[in-house]
Structure formats: C-alpha cells, structure tokens
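User: Is it possible to get a 3D structure for a protein together with its bound compound? The compound here is manganese (II) ion. I've pasted both below.
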Amino acid sequence: MFSKVEIQRNRLKYLLKKSDNFFIIGHVKPDGDSIGSTLALTIALTRLGKNVTPACADKLPNRYDFLPQSQIIKKPSDVTAALTSANILIVVDCGSFHLAGIENLQSNRPLPLLINIDHHHDNPRYGTINLVEDKRSSTAEIVYDIIKMLEVEIDEQIATCILNGIFVDTDSFKNPNTSIKTLRITSDLLSRGADLAQITSSNLKDKSLSTLKLWGITLARIKKNKRLGIISTAVTNKDLKRCNATYDDLEGISNFLNSVPDAKTSLVLSERSDNEIKGSLRTLHDNIDVSKLAATLGGGGHKKAAGFSISGRIANEGGKWRIV
Ligand SMILES: [Mn+2]
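Assistant: Yes, that's possible. Here is the predicted structure of the complex:
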C-alpha cells in the first residue's frame, strides 16, 4: 500500500516531468523559507529544461541578495503573461492561497493546475495536488525531497537555497521542529557546498534602526507576573511614531521575551487604531496552550502562538501602564 503522501508525490513527479511552463510563487512578506524554496525549485526545474518564472508579491529583503538567482524573482503583476501561459502554478510555503497575493491577477482567468507545497498544519489543501507535511521543519525540507525525486543533482546553488529555508524556519536549529531528518538533510546540503557561513551572517542582519529603537523602548517597559509566569510589555502609537517604526518592527519581540528562564508565556500589547489594542501571546512550553488564554478574550490562534483584540488605549498613569 502507498501512503497518501506517496501517492501525491508520484502524481507530482509525473506532472513536473511532463509539463513545460511553470510559475512559482511564495508568500507576501517573504521569509527565508519562502524565498529559498522558490529559488531551489526554480533552479532544479530549469536544469530539466523547463521554462520557469519565479515570483513574489513583495520586495525581497536585501539580506537575501546573496541567494543564487534571487534577482530573477519577479513581481507577479510584471509577469502576468507568464502566469496565464503556465501549465502549472506552484505555491510554496503559503498556509492559505490568499498569502500568495495573486488573487487579483487571476480573477477572470482560469487558474493553471495548482500545486500546493507547504508545512503549515492549518493549510486547507487548496491545490489540485497538495504536498502538505506539517511535521517538517520547513517547506525547503520538502523541496529537498522533490528535487531528489526529480533526480536533479543538488549543487552548491540549490543546496544554499534549501539550507537558507531550513536555517530560518528552525530559528537556526533551535526550534523543536528540528528533527533528525532535518539534520541529515542539512549534513547532505553542507557536503554539497551549501554556504552556511554566508547564511548565518546574512540572516543575523534582520533588524533595522527603527526596529531596534522600538525594541529598546518596549524592553525597558517589561513586567513579570510572578504568579502566572507571564512576561509582558506594551507599545503605543506614539512609540511607533517616535521610532519611525511600523507594527512589523514588533515581530520577534514576543519570542524574545521568552528568553527569561522561568517565563511561561509572553504577552505584547500594542495599540492599533484609536480604540483597539492587540495582544500577542507566545510560549515555548509544550504543556501550555496560549490559544485557550486568547479565546477567553475573544481571540484565537495556535497552541504556542495566539492573539486577541480588545477595545481601549494604553496609557501611563502615574508611572503605571494601564489599559483605559
Ligand atoms: Mn516556512
């Protein structure tokens, strides 16, 4: 008997081998896994003589300029003809189709056959073929298997792209999603010339001046609830303005607060519009489910990462931070 994944893989192999025109896209606000997976697949299929157009709806962060072929990734709106003429649309690392950011481009056109390659557990399997493996560290790890299956030799370029995806999504091999398989693949990629030194140094350069200024303010304000083990902080609209920062610059703070040894959960409150406060909850503990905590406040999410939204403002009254 073949498993579901094996059947999908065999169908995938057949389709990739027999088709000629591919359009490959990752998610908006691209990260190292999305870009690494897009490029590795693009290089491998090009080696097989295919015509491949890699795309991304948002600009790539400059730190990924070092990735082989990164300059050939196009804005989908600049290559609509390629999307129309593609036999196959491959969407990588997108937990939902919406995240590819191309819905507005294909509203009147029939979609090419869609292949969904991803590792997010809540992926609703929106493709014609879905290679969704939620136990894998990264989409790049799944792409490694596909390239092996296609019998394309993994050279330095492909190896660097795949390793970049694994490195970023495992948070440099620190997350519990780092499996024996992840490390076996990593070892193979290194033996094929993947540039780990470059990957490490480029991925360290992921904070702007605005981000660090905002983190400074936010970190100076942290509090610990001893009884619940919650480390929390708050960010106001004024803070964002002062640092010339955006909400995106807050990304990573919740995880960073969990560096405190006895922290059970972190909470970052941030003012959004005039009368809205968002709460972001993160935990590193397997036995804590922050989505339940978020649900008591009308929110939701995953076991280890969840959020909620409440009305109010964050104010400092007599040196104490309060929600008013
Ligand atoms: Mn990913």
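The chain has two domains: 4-204, 209-323. The first helix runs from residue 4 to 18.
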